[in-house]
Write a structure and sequence with these properties.
The structure is a single chain. By secondary structure, the chain is of the alpha/beta class. The protein has two domains: 201 residues, Enolpyruvate transferase domain (UDP-n-acetylglucosamine1-carboxyvinyl-transferase, Chain, Alpha-beta prism), CATH 3.65.10; 209 residues, Enolpyruvate transferase domain (UDP-n-acetylglucosamine1-carboxyvinyl-transferase, Chain). 31% of the residues lie in helices and 26% in strands. It is built from 14 helices and 24 strands. Strands 22-23-1-24 form a four-stranded mixed sheet. Strands 2-15-17-16 form a four-stranded mixed sheet, with helices on one face. β22, α12 and β23 form a beta-alpha-beta unit. α4 packs parallel to α6.
């Protein structure tokens, strides 16, 4: 099993180009199930989750061509697709469940394995299933599979989510585009990745109307158009490298981004005395000599993202005082804490709250990654630590970060992959 070796305390300097968003690409790929017209998607991140989704689409009958050099995907559905999404593919990524909505809407049936991905909490799919039931679907869960049918097609309905869910919003949004009548979606997620999906669906010809910040109206349509779409940048990757610059007292130019989209993250890091110069499509990060303490609550967009919680925690270990984090999205997202403690961090966790005592020198250690964002937080800790850090089980990292060791090495980090 592959691992990463990092020799820490190397100041980062240079330019990092941010990849396309994994979390935007996956629902867009799922949405291509709706159309038999040619689709070209640009700015694709070459990460394992995207490759798995491509394999899933190929398995159900799509003709998918992934060009890793150009970072494009061409898709053409020449025939009726299969409606089975097998466990062997869906088990490794949460986003596999996103094919449920479009398969059910277009073909009237779907059998989709219960999803896998990171072990960061229960992440129930009840919101997806209950909404599809309101649209006329009959659903059973048996032997690890979601078995769904809608013989007369899905019908427009009022869907009001009891809590904000990015995945459920995306699934129901895609399904409603091919349903009969109008669907009203309320209390939906407003993340940039959801907005990018809306932009893509509108290019297909879907009729989607934004009714307030967290409300969408969708009129079902079956005649869709071919389109070309460029995926939005990965805001979590951008935030990760901003924190990397601050941890190493480095200077990084982070390009191919829209600073307005990550203004919450930038403003919070400014409060921690990290200096960030904003330009139109890039930023320049220079760290202060001392990192300030802060309180962070994870929230749905435009709040601070849960996907950056582990990374900001590493920066907090280097602050002047005590910082706190309240994790409001997932109930089991502090699994990286035990590994950070092995490096010398002083962190207390009670329920969904963590207290991080700053001013602690991190020391290299052998570590075990537990999920995607925990993996990258350990990379950040290794960059800041004395001596050598070895991170095992990095396959989670490869699910969401494109060529992370190459990007960091080019900016002065001592990091290499070992077999």
């Amino acid at each position: 099993m592959e691992k990463l070796e990092i020799i820490g305390r190397k100041k980062l300097s240079g330019t990092i180009s941010i990849s396309g968003s994994k979390n935007a690409t996956l629902p867009i790929l799922a949405a291509t199930i709706l159309t038999n017209k040619k689709i070209l998607i640009k700015n694709i991140p070459i990460v394992r989750d995207v490759e798995t989704m491509v394999a899933l689409l190929n398995t159900i009958g799509s003709t998918v061509k992934l060009n890793k050099k150009k970072k494009t995907i061409e898709i053409l559905n020449k025939k009726k697709l299969k409606t089975l999404a097998p466990y062997s593919l869906v088990k490794t990524m949460r986003a596999g469940v996103l094919v449920l909505g479009p398969l059910l809407a277009k073909y009237g049936s779907a059998k989709v394995s219960l999803p896998g991905g990171c072990s960061i909490g229960s992440r129930p799919i009840d919101l997806h299933l209950n909404a599809l039931k309101k649209m006329g679907a009959k659903i059973n869960v048996k032997n690890g599979y979601i078995i769904a049918s809608a013989k007369n097609g899905l019908k427009g309905s009022l869907i009001k989510f009891p809590k904000i869910s990015v995945g459920a919003t995306q699934n129901i949004l895609i399904a409603s585009c091919f349903s009969k009548g109008k669907t009203k979606i309320r209390n939906c997620a407003s993340e940039p990745e959801v907005q990018d999906l809306i932009y893509f669906l509108r290019k297909l010809g879907c009729k989607i109307y934004q009714i307030g910040k967290r409300s969408l109206d969708v009129e079902g349509i079956v005649n869709l158009k071919p389109c070309v779409h460029k995926v939005i940048f990965d805001r979590i990757e951008a935030g990760t490298y901003i924190i990397a610059a601050a941890l190493t007292n480095g200077r990084l130019k982070i390009k191919n981004i829209d600073p307005k989209i990550i203004s919450t993250e930038i403003n919070l890091l400014n409060k921690m005395k990290v200096k960030i110069i904003r330009k139109k499509n890039y930023i320049i990060v220079t760290s202060a000599k001392k990192i300030g303490a802060i309180k962070v609550d994870t929230r749905p967009y435009p709040g601070f993202p849960t996907d950056l919680q582990a990374q900001i925690m590493v920066l907090m270990t280097q602050s002047e005082d005590i910082s706190t984090i309240r994790e409001n999205i997932f109930e089991n997202r502090f699994m990286h804490v035990s590994e950070l403690r092995r490096m010398g961090a002083n962190i207390e966790v009670v329920g969904n709250r963590a207290k991080i005592y700053g001013g602690r020198q991190l020391n290299g250690a052998e570590l075990m990654a537990t999920d995607l964002r925990a993996s990258v937080s350990l990379v950040l800790a290794g960059l800041a630590a004395k001596e050598k850090t070895v991170i095992n089980r990095i396959y989670h990292l490869d699910r969401g970060y494109e060529q992370i060791e190459k990007k960091l090495s080019a900016c002065g980090a001592s990091i290499r992959r070992l077999k």
